[in-house]
Write a structure and sequence with these properties.
Layout: E1 14-17, E2 35-39, E3 50-53, H1 58-61, H2 63-66, E4 72-75, E5 88-90, E6 99-101, E7 104-106, H3 124-134, E8 140-143, H4 169-178, E9 187-189, H5 204-214
Parallel strand pairs: 1-2, 1-8, 2-3, 3-4, 4-5, 8-9
Antiparallel strand pairs: 6-7
Helix pairs in contact: 3-4
Length: 215
């Protein structure tokens, strides 16, 4: 059964903004007028077209910033501020398709092609990308999809003790699998250092410059 959000932005570019350190110093206002999906703490610095939460505590952590946000919210069950925002869509996650064996958890291999099918994968990075695909975005540009630490985990923090080379393994593996589906649109990763290698690189400066010239 189709969902009302399926292909809402069919054929339009969508920028998915994650929280990696590669976005330190980035001027988010350059994305004004674009269709954007922001993940978690992005709301503290920028109001995207759509906010995305699957972490059960993120919308509580960022409740103050959300008070002035009037855009759409896509959230997993229990992960959205349903008491304060009307423009919110709760999308199921396929947790019932996890296969449990002892202490091991293996993600389902089913990738839905409608919001009615639920989101695929673990972690907000993967579900936000899946959401952009289901919205009909084409092409899709990934910003801050690092999956490593560089003096911290996020663009708005600095900690010289945090330099882990491999982060968020479940989300990382889910994105890699999502990237191998034969029906997905063009997706570009705007961080040349990103661990995510299943999508070609696109220079965000050239992308934004080309779009500005086309207006």
């Amino acid at each position: 059964m189709a969902h009302k959000l399926d292909n809402l932005y069919e054929g339009f570019p969508i920028f998915v903004v994650s929280t990696g350190t590669s976005l330190r110093g980035f001027d988010f206002t350059r994305l004004n007028g674009k269709i954007t999906i922001g993940i978690n703490r992005v709301i503290e610095h920028y109001h995207p077209s759509i906010m995305h939460f699957v972490d059960l505590t993120a919308h509580i952590t960022h409740a103050e910033a959300l008070r002035n946000y009037n855009g759409m919210i896509l959230a997993g069950p229990g992960a959205g501020p349903t008491q304060t925002h009307d423009n919110i869509f709760i999308i199921q996650r396929n947790v019932d398709t996890f296969e449990l064996s002892g202490n091991m958890t293996t993600l389902s291999r089913k990738v839905g092609r409608s919001f009615s099918d639920g989101w695929f994968g673990g972690g907000a990075g993967c579900t936000a990308l899946h959401a952009a695909m289901l919205l009909g975005g084409n092409p899709i540009f990934l910003l801050g999809y690092d999956y490593y630490e560089d003096n911290g985990s996020h663009f708005d923090e600095y900690d010289e003790s945090r330099n882990e080379e491999n982060l968020y393994s479940v989300s990382f593996e889910s994105i890699d699998y999502l990237g191998r589906q034969d029906w997905i649109p063009k997706v570009y990763n705007c961080n040349p250092r990103s661990r995510v290698k299943c999508f070609p690189y696109a220079d965000i400066e050239m992308v934004l410059g080309a779009q500005a010239m086309a207006i």
